[in-house]
Input
Amino acid sequence: MSNQIKNFRFAELNLRHNGNTSNTLDLVNRAIRMGYDSVAINIDIGDPFQTLAERIDEGSEEPAKKKKKKQKSFQDEEEIIPDPFRIDEDKLNPTDLQRLKSDGKVFRQFTRITMTLSNTTAVHKIMNNKKIKKFDLIAVRIQDQEMLTTMSRKGDFVDIITFDPCAGQKPSWLYSSKLVQAVASEGISFELTYSGGLTDSPSRREFLSSARLLMDATKKGGNVFLSSGARSLIQIRGPYDVSNLSSLFGMDPFYGIHFVSNDPKNILLRCQARRLTIKGGIHVSDLDHVPNRTKSSSEALEDLLKVDEFRKQVKLQDEENAQRMEVDS
Output
């Protein structure tokens, strides 16, 4: 991922990769042709800690037998996270790339992983999994308010909260506006995928119902973005068509463009800061060089800026603030 996100216009942050490289390449080419200059290739692994027996029981109509107290996962915990997938940019349609370039845009691809987390133990295991750090974007699917509360406290490793907007049973946290806004205040964004709503009338009604609930919970779409979640070419829509969807769930169409532009850009800036930010540091110095009360604030700050790690962090924060001001303007 590039150090700075410049010449950014539209982003499609959920193109599904199911192992078929050719299909994923076609999805990316279609997204570029429709006007997106940034895409995220998403690998959805479902619930990584669900056992094989539990998956079989979910697909069976017979009552589940009493499970043993200890069950082994069908994969080792270190291997539950796959490697990120990136397309070979040399195989992209050169005509579409040239069109982006002529418009002053730069094509960017990001890696994303999506998973279902059902308890705090799963959160702890994912946070400490080394392979999770290989992905640019991390999205989680949760159902209840307790897990959303966990995200508000330990969600610094998560960028996106997602859910199935076409499901008949809505996640309980969708009705808790204060909790949703608390999570949004931590910089975590909420995803609304529209591809499921393109299939039939019942799915479309469920999508619009979920969209209105999310708009209300986030106070008119704060920290919300729209994506396709596309598995096939027919499920992708252009950025202006997607932005016009906002009028169907009570939003101003003029503001709808933010759902595919500024809001995704803020997500990418946050994930960039998360990956590059120094978590902490220790500077050892003799007592003569330790800031004390006899020094003014500016003098103490000047001493701190002599520390390489602190100076780099300040510079990174200044760049992020400048980029946010550019977005607001």
Summary: The CA atoms of residues 27 and 232 lie 7 Å apart.
